[in-house]
Amino acid sequence: MGRTLSLVKNLPEEKITEKGLSSFNFKLAEELLQMILSPDWLESSVFSQLILKIQQNNEIKHKLETGISLLILDAENLKLDINSELFLASVCEYPLQVKIAFANWKNPSIGKQDIELYNRGYQLLHVPEGKNSADAKMIAFGACLLRSYPTVKEILVCSSDGILNHLCNELQNQGLIVYWVRRQGQNLHIENRNTGKLTHYSLAVPTELSSFEKVVDTIHDSIKTEQESINARLDSLVTVATLFQEKCDINIPKNPKQPENEKIIPVLDNSFTESIQETKKEKVAKISNGKTLDKLLLKIIHDIQKTSPETKLSVSKLGSELQKITGESPNSIIKTLKLGSSFSKYLQSSPTFTLKASGREYEVMALLCE
Q1: Record's InterPro entries (predicted)?
Q2: CA within 20 to 30 Å of 14's CA: 1, 116, 183, 329, which one?
């Protein structure tokens, strides 16, 4: 700038007048161009910083114009394998560049998901133990999403919890294209909240595996997961029925046509025929007095603690296990043996067991061991 001023000062006034303003501008431009293209200027640090600044501004402008997609995942609620993730990325118009997973990573039920997701480029955000803790963190994160990621144009909200509807609405109000990803059975439902369009992805589609061992492991894991799911649902159903009987003081009579030693078996899928046949072969325990009942309850507690040492055994769970073995509700057994009015009151008064309050339930512990 200083050299430019000196150039202007050095030009004679009469020369400016003679050649006119256009000639003066041409001369000034020529001098400036010579100065800018000189080797000293091109190699100077000022010129390098100027070029760097221009490049940075162009990159920022390009990113703002291009935009990215972002995925947030409630890892406690929904599991995404690599194929599911690739499909979700294909649904978006912008490249999926940021992936964030929320969970209490100390929870043993999460397994090795943290390692797998981290290896796939996820940021892992830890939340404390508690109901809807991951959902609450996702909502808080989403409220200020654009502050941390100003180039986001699309977001995939991956959770089947209905409370995430609030987050989807907030993100829409911030001008983002929102996809709500939920699991229904063996399918992922991807809902574009801006257009209402639904896209489906089948989780049951087989994936390519590289070896026979991996195929066997996959089949084994699938069978185990399905068995655990069905057992959990059956346990929940029995627990609800037991609690209902206790609350309403209902005693369901036996079917007179049903043999006394035959257990009622629910009709399940053909894949579990062998399990059902084995169950039918089991001998139903015959309880004649309180001593026999206590022995059976102690055996149930011992077996559960042996397989799952950290499991807290509630009254309803113990009653469910007892009903599985005997075919009778715990209340019915207690009343038949004239040991009290209900199963929970019997345990409370028994010298063999003690009850400890645990939330809304009572945890059962044995005082005597055989």
Answers
A1: NYN (IPR021139)
A2: 1
Q: Which of 146-160, 230-244, 278-292 has the lowest mean pLDDT?
A: 278-292
- Distance in angstroms (rounded) separating the CA atoms of residues 107 and 352: 33
Rounded to the nearest integer, the mean pLDDT of the chain is 76
Q: What backbone torsions phi and psi does residue 209 show, to the nearest 5 degrees?
A: -120, 150
Q: Of 50-59, 165-174, 293-302, where does mean pLDDT reach its minimum?
A: 50-59
- Overall pTM surpassing 0.85 (yes/no): no
How far, in Å, CA of 67 to CA of 64, rounded? 6
Return the domain boundaries, the chain.
Answer: 2-62, 66-202, 229-366
Architecture of domain 66-202: 3-Layer(aba) Sandwich (3.40)
Cβ-contact 311, 300 below 8 angstroms: no
257-282 in b/e form (b: 16+ CB < 10 A) is eeeeeebeeeeeeeebeeeeeeeeee
